[in-house]
Design goal:
Helices cover 42% and strands 20% of the residues. It has helices at residues 7-75, 77-84, 124-129, and strands at 98-100, 118-120, 142-144, 150-159, 171-180, 186-195. Strands 3-4-5-6 form a four-stranded antiparallel sheet, covered by helices on one side.
């Protein structure tokens, strides 16, 4: 003989089953939130690491250009003054000599690697607002990293007088490197370097 299960037990079974489904849905929601948060944190960390690497590469490009500038000044002081000592201001609106250097050049007689400056076809005003990839940059003033990021170099000089190589009349060089970051924004790094003066 089959006995009928009392209704209070069937309600209890139904209620327990319903609670279990709700608990599973809550657990899935919590897990999804935790995974999403972990992904966002990991993504931010990767972006920060890439940004730091890009800034480090830009700084290395600047230091390389400054080293090349110092090498030229020590190697050929007289020639350096006439070639690089341009009496104009990088803060003004006139046409300055905006350039970059071949860091592989060994001296004025090097026929493979140019000793003199590669001249950027820009004036002071446009140099301050130049976008990466625009036609104003001379192609030789662009370096590409192993990761494929293009860095654009622009050096300009502020000279107090035409004869800059005196203790009281130093030349201040502004070295800028611009690039498009991983986020797609235009970035730049600037260092000022002085030759001469006290």
């Amino acid at each position: 003989m089959i006995r009928k299960i009392p209704e209070r037990f069937t309600k209890l079974v139904r209620r327990q089953t319903g609670d279990t489904i709700v608990e599973v849905l809550i657990a899935i929601a919590v897990a999804a939130f935790a995974i999403g948060t972990s992904y966002a944190i990991a993504n931010k960390s990767i972006q920060r690491a890439i940004t730091a690497r890009e800034r480090n590469e830009a700084t290395n490009s600047i230091q390389s250009q400054i080293s090349a500038l110092k090498f030229r000044e020590k190697f050929d002081p007289a020639g350096f003054n006439s070639t690089f000592g341009v009496p104009t201001s990088f803060a003004g609106t006139g046409t300055a000599r905006h350039f970059c250097l071949n860091t592989q050049s060994s001296g004025p007689t090097d026929t493979v690697n140019q000793w003199g400056p590669y001249i950027n076809n820009v004036n002071d005003t446009s140099a301050n607002t130049l976008s990466v990839g625009s036609s104003g940059y001379f192609d030789k003033c662009r370096t590409t990293s192993a990761n494929g990021t293009d860095y654009y170099i622009d050096i300009s000089a502020m000279v107090t007088t035409a004869s800059r190589s005196t203790a009281n009349n130093p030349t201040v060089y502004r070295v800028i490197v611009r690039w498009i970051s991983v986020s797609g924004a235009l970035q730049q790094s600037i260092i000022y370097y002085r030759i001469g003066g006290v």
